[in-house]
Structures are given as C-alpha cells and as structure tokens.
Amino acid sequence: MKNQNIQSSFIIVIIFFIIGFFLINQPVKNLAPENIKYVKIAGQNIKIELALTEETQAQGLSGRLLLKEDEGMLFVFERPGNYSFWMKDMNFPIDIIWLDEYKKVIYIKKDARPELFPESYGPETNSKYVLEVVSGFSEKNNLQVGDRVEFEY
C-alpha cells in the first residue's frame, strides 16, 4: 500500500512537470509591430493601418477621401526621433497623436487641416509612434497628454 501511494505521488509530480514544461514553452504571441491590428486609446479601439516603411510613411493618408471614426493609421518608426507631419495632399482634417517609446501620449495636434499645408506639426520631444485619427477624436474622447495607449495584436 505504501509503495502504491509513493508511485501515485511520483506519477502526479511527473504529470505536473510535464504540464508545466508545455505551458512555459508555449509560443509567445508575436509582438512585432507588423502584427498590430488595433490601438486602444482613450477607451476606444481603433482599427489601424500600419505605416512601417519610408514609402508608406511618406504616403500616409494622403489622397484618401475619408477615414471612419473607428479607423486610423499608426506610424511606427525604428527609433525614437523628432518626427513632424504635414497635410500634403490630404482631403480631410485629422487629429495627430504622438507617442513615446512607452506608448504614452506626448503631443496632440487637434484638427490638422489640409488648407494649412505646408505648415508642419510635431512635438519638441522624441516620439516613436504617431497615430492619425479623424478630426475631433481627441476632443470627443477627452484624450490628454500623458494618457497611455495599448497595442492589440
């Protein structure tokens, strides 16, 4: 009876080790920038299109006719830097939101208007991400400098 209890305990311990091994070695969700699907900001989920390359960043939202309230474009830069934006070839106003490398809002340009081109906008501090959303989003959702943003994959 004693040997049977020891054997049962040993089997249970082995099973827990095996389960633990598989749990620890599960593939981690790929958190690469190209896998970002949504940005959660000011309590809202924004479906985003990514601007990862110099070409897509130069194009941005230029030439588009509209942007829905729950859509945006996220510019992801390789390293933090001083990134300014302008409204060249834009057809509608937008809010432009700069984030630092920790995904904290550091600057907001509300209602950037196409007719003000070639004026450019940007913070005096370095950013790593820039989010473009429909004009009025920041005001409507009470977005503030210092707010945190989450990326959803």
Quick overview:
The chain contains 3 helices and 9 strands, in the order αββαββββββαβ. It is an alpha+beta fold.
Describe how the helices and strands are arranged.
Blueprint: H1 2-24, E1 38-41, E2 44-51, H2 54-59, E3 71-81, E4 85-86, E5 94-99, E6 105-112, E7 120-121, E8 127-134, H3 137-140, E9 150-152
Parallel strand pairs: 2-3
Antiparallel strand pairs: 1-2, 1-9, 3-8, 4-7, 5-6, 5-8
CATH level 1 name = Mainly Beta
Our measurement of the CA-to-CA distance between the termini, rounded to an integer number of angstroms, reads 53 Å
Report the C-alpha radius of gyration, rounded. 23 Å
Major sheet details: 7 strands, mixed
Question: Globular, elongated, flat, extended or rod-shaped: what is the shape?
Answer: elongated
> What is the third-level CATH name, the topology?
Jelly Rolls
Overall number of domains? 1
Task: Give me the side-by-side strand order of the main sheet.
Answer: 6-5-8-3-2-1-9
Number of DSSP-assigned strands: 9
Provide the succession of SSEs: HEEHEEEEEEHE
- Average pLDDT number: 90
Q: Please tally the helical runs, counting DSSP H or I stretches of 4 or more residues.
A: 3
Helix content: 10-25%
Proportion of residues in β-strands: 25-35%
CATH architecture tag: Sandwich
Fourth-level CATH superfamily: Protein of unknown function DUF192
Briefly note the structural class of the backbone.
alpha+beta
Assembly state: single chain
Task: State the low-pLDDT regions, or none.
Answer: none
